[in-house]
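Appendix B, record 7
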Amino acid sequence: MVKDIIKEADDKMKKALEAMQREFAEISTGRANPSMVEGLRVDCYGTPMLLKQLASITVPDARLIQIQPWDASLIPEIEKSILKSSLGVNPSNDSKMIRVAIPQLSKDRREELARVVKKMAEDGRISLRTIRRDAKEAIDKLEKEKRIAEDDKFKGHDSLQKIVDSHIQKVEQILAGKEKELAEF
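Structure tokens (predicted):
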């Protein structure tokens, strides 16, 4: 029972980490990267879909992303979703392909992005701690109902804390990598 709770908490923490990594990928560091636009939602055929499901996304050089939709009639919708995004870029199109030029980052913009990245990392840590709290409460409930022994409760808490610590360490590694990326240019 305790192992199931810990396994479920670990799975939730992995998903929270993946979500944080996706958010980090959308932060522009001055270098073009397909992941900056892949996750954008585009309204097409009455349904929101991910851009990567609608187009081929390439990076011909360090400052340009090319998006070639499989259906050219989607170009206006794709442009709208790029403009609505937090990327802060202006797409241009030639009726067959969209080009997104990634501007050089100013010092102020880098500092602003560094603050945003730190906040995103803190949000990631908070979600990990929330998952830990919920799992801990579930373990405590099992002990109160006399379904597990007190020793098992404490072992469960220890195992849970080790998992949380390892995930928080991953958050720190991801944050350090993104901060280094922002400082490079």
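Remarks on this record: Strands lie at 41-44, 47-50, 55-61, 64-69, 91-93, 98-101. The helical segments are 2-25, 35-38, 75-84, 107-144, 150-184.
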